[in-house]
């Protein structure tokens, strides 16, 4: 599967001319589709749908769903990382390739609330949220990318009662911990000018959590303001109009004290990116 999917990765395109045709699996494609193959797509679709059927998902993620023994827990988790990262890579390729079924895939992956939470626990326990280890290990980036997409879709469909009152999937303190981690991860990506291939997925999840927190607080008052970093250094970066400073202002506006920055940049169009707490 991991060898086959990359061959189809570039099939989906934006319709730019009359030479594009709608493919039942991949969306818009270049080149005409052989009509003799159309009836076969129904069978191919049924076969692909097995990959995100709840029973298959449970098997694929069985390593993280099974409880770990108390002794040598971290070592046993590390042993499971290669297989889990391969599974995550497969689903990421499927999401990228079979664009017509993205919603179905994410629903299938998230139908068991335990899976999403267990993947986060696995990621946290194996990395200890060490940024250097995360940046330097491809498998962790793959796991984080799929986790971000699964959580983002989950947050889109859960209402406030399910998310905050019933605390379905995640407790409020878990959500606060995830936001703190993503906040610092994305800041370091920008500040240290590191490469993070899945930046947009992580940023989308972080901003979604921020918007939900604005509606109903699950974090403390100054949780979103960047901690452990001198604010005058950040303000100096903005005053210098560096690409790094402007990128943080646009992509992570919540890490700055709103009142100070909004007064300083009240006439700047970038102030439109700020949300009032």
What does this structure look like?
One of its GO terms (molecular function) is ubiquitin protein ligase activity. The chain folds into 2 domains: 5-219, no CATH class; 225-277, no CATH class. Helix content is 60%, strand content 3%. It is built from 14 helices and 2 strands. The chain has helices spanning 38-49, 54-60, 62-65, 73-97, 102-110, 113-127, 131-135, 138-157, 160-165, 172-191, 199-215, 231-239, 243-251, 258-264, and strands spanning 20-23, 27-30. Helix 5 (102-110) crosses helix 8 and helix 12 crosses helix 13 (243-251).
Q: Can you tag this structure with a few keywords?
A:
277 residues; mainly alpha; 2 domains; 60% helix; 3% strand; disordered C terminus
What's the structural blueprint in terms of helices and strands?
Layout lengths: L19 E4 L3 E4 L7 H12 L4 H7 L1 H4 L7 H25 L4 H9 L2 H15 L3 H5 L2 H20 L2 H6 L6 H20 L7 H17 L15 H9 L3 H9 L6 H7 L13
Antiparallel strand pairs: 1-2
Strand content: under 5%
Cα-to-Cα separation, first versus last residue: 46 Å
* Helix run count: 14
Quaternary form: single chain
Which parts are unreliable, with pLDDT below 50 for 5 consecutive residues or more? 269-277
Q: How many strands, which pairing sense, and closed or not: the largest β-sheet?
A: 2 strands, antiparallel
SSE pattern, N- to C-terminal: EEHHHHHHHHHHHHHH
Which shape, going by the Cα principal axes? globular
Q: pLDDT average, as an integer?
A: 82
Organism: Geodia barretti (Barrett's horny sponge)
Enzyme class: transferase
GO molecular function: ligase activity; ubiquitin protein ligase activity
EC number: 2.3.2.26
């Amino acid at each position: 599967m991991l060898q086959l999917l990359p061959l189809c990765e570039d099939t989906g395109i934006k319709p730019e001319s009359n030479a594009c045709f709608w493919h039942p699996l991949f969306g818009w494609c270049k080149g005409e589709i052989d009509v003799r193959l159309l009836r076969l797509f129904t069978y191919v679709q049924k076969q692909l749908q097995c990959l995100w059927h709840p029973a298959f998902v449970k098997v694929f993620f069985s390593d993280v769903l099974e409880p770990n023994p108390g002794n040598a827990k971290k070592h046993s988790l590390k042993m499971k990382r290669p297989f889990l990262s391969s599974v995550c890579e497969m689903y990421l390729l499927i999401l990228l390739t079979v664009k017509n079924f993205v919603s179905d895939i994410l629903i299938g992956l998230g139908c068991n609330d335990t899976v999403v939470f267990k993947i986060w626990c696995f990621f946290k326990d194996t990395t200890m949220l060490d940024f250097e280890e995360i940046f330097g290990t491809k498998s962790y980036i793959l796991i984080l990318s799929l986790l971000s997409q699964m959580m983002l879709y989950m947050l889109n469909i859960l209402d406030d009662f399910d998310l905050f009152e019933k605390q379905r999937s995640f407790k409020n303190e878990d959500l606060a911990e995830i936001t703190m981690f993503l906040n610092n991860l994305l800041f370091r990506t920008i500040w240290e000018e590191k490469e993070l291939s899945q930046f947009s997925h992580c940023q989308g999840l972080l901003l979604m959590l921020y918007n939900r927190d604005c509606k109903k607080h699950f974090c403390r008052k100054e949780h979103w303001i960047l901690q452990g970093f001198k604010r005058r250094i950040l303000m100096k970066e903005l005053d210098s109009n560096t690409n790094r400073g402007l990128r943080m202002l646009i992509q992570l506006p919540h890490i700055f004290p709103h009142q100070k920055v909004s007064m300083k940049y009240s006439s700047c169009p970038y102030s439109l990116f700020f949300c009032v707490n």
